[in-house]
Amino acid sequence: MGDGPYFFLSHAPAGLGAGGGDPDLWVGRLFDDLCRGVAELTALPDGTPAGFMDRGPRPGTGWSEELGRSLASCRVFVPLLSPRYFASERCGKQWYAFAQRAIRHRAATDRPADAIVPALWVPVPNRQLPLSAAQLDFDHRGLGERYATDGLYGLIKLRLLADEYQRAVHHLARHIVGAARATRVGPGRPPDARTLPSAFGAAPGPRPLRVTVAAPTLGELPAGRDRAYYGESPLDWNPYHPATRRPLALIAEDIVGSLNYRPTVASFDEEHPADGPQAPARPEILLVDRWALRDERRRARLAALDAADRPWIGVVVPWNRADPQSRAATDELAARTAAALPFRTHHGRAACRTAARGVESLGAFEELLPQVVEAAAQQYLRHAPAHPPEGRARGARPRLTGPMATPEPGRRGTAPYRPLGRAPDVEDTDDNQP
User: Where do the segments described as Disordered lie (predicted)?
Assistant: First the structure.
């Protein structure tokens, strides 16, 4: 950790500056002031940078190795909030990469990692905040009333507000140092920007998603099964014990939330899905314990779900290679999984097939789950019922009329538009739509 920066300033690069000037001049000044403030409040070893700021290529290009290393080793993540920031996929990926480190810290210690310290560059209305930002517990008014109403950009541009700017920077530096001392988020691997999702999602607001768990309770365990991985509820199931102290449902909830979804968690045994095809209400992730397939009733319900036409439900089958019982019964449990979930284990995306066949470590689970979520969300959009705007008859197709329209044979004046080369006896009706 000593080799990484104390904080990582994540910002949305501005457009090209007028006259060839530095478009990020003011952000650079803020960064320099924050570095001096943090250095004054700490005793950083020689050679340890106080902060890192992405001064590299413009958006749309890859990350530098230095950026990846800094993001994987910094103590505190400082997003510089603005409407432009939340529209940036690059910034969303940086936020997601650091959030995964915080999720791993919480999984290992069962303590939240409040190591994201937001800074207002330009105030953003609460209704425009993605879930990842809206759920941060941070009082911006504690840095000054003018800061909360004008943001750092408003303060730094006006000489009359120089004192307000210095006060806001000083308090922000104190928050950064306080977060670093209170939370020790362990380092991670440098992330690959090409495969990272954005923490802000593709939609403007948080979207609902269900996480369902199919696992036995302590009172339903197969004979001789180790009790250390289970609890009084299926939601207590922790297949990756002792690597993590948290139930898998809560870890999944954290990961799904970091993708700008609003998750709800439920037990598969308490759900009563209807038979046959049905319209989806939301995308869903089903976490299945292989040992649960020894119960014939639960196995039959899972097989029925697999056979139903519900591709918006992504299936993940976690298991622990460090668990001696699971390792010894690998062949039997894998065969039960393939028999109960044949469609999930043989069709769909490669990541979804891998997830359904078995995810043997917590690290692999953290990497695969976002891909399964994305696939389930896309399938949900394909199968969800559409709601056309009010005031227009369903099935009615818009037609172009006027001087550019081609008259039909035998008719005078304007007529519905017909593309050139279309046979004259083919009618433009809904029945002929591709």
Answer: 383-434
Number of domains in the chain: 2
412 part of a folded domain: no
Three-state DSSP at 102 gives helix
**DSSP code at position 318:** B
Residue type, 385: P
Measured CA to CA, the distance from residue 42 to residue 433 in angstroms comes to: 68
Cα 318 to Cα 116, 119, 239, 287, 334, distances in angstroms = 29, 38, 7, 7, 11
DSSP state of 431: G
Cis peptide before 83 (omega within 30 of 0): no
Residues 232 and 150 in one domain: no
pLDDT tops 90 at residue 352: yes
Shared domain for 244 and 177, answered yes or no, is no
Structural domain range at position 160: 7-182
Q: Rounded to whole angstroms, how far apart are CA atoms 264 and 244? A: 21
**244-294 pLDDT, tens digit each:** 989 999 999 989 988 888 899 999 988 755 555 567 889 999 999 999 999
52/139 Cα distance (integer angstroms): 24
- Do 170 and 252 lie in one domain? The reply is no
Instruction: Please compute Rg for the chain using Cα positions.
Output: 27
Decide the pairing of beta strands 207-214 and 261-267. parallel
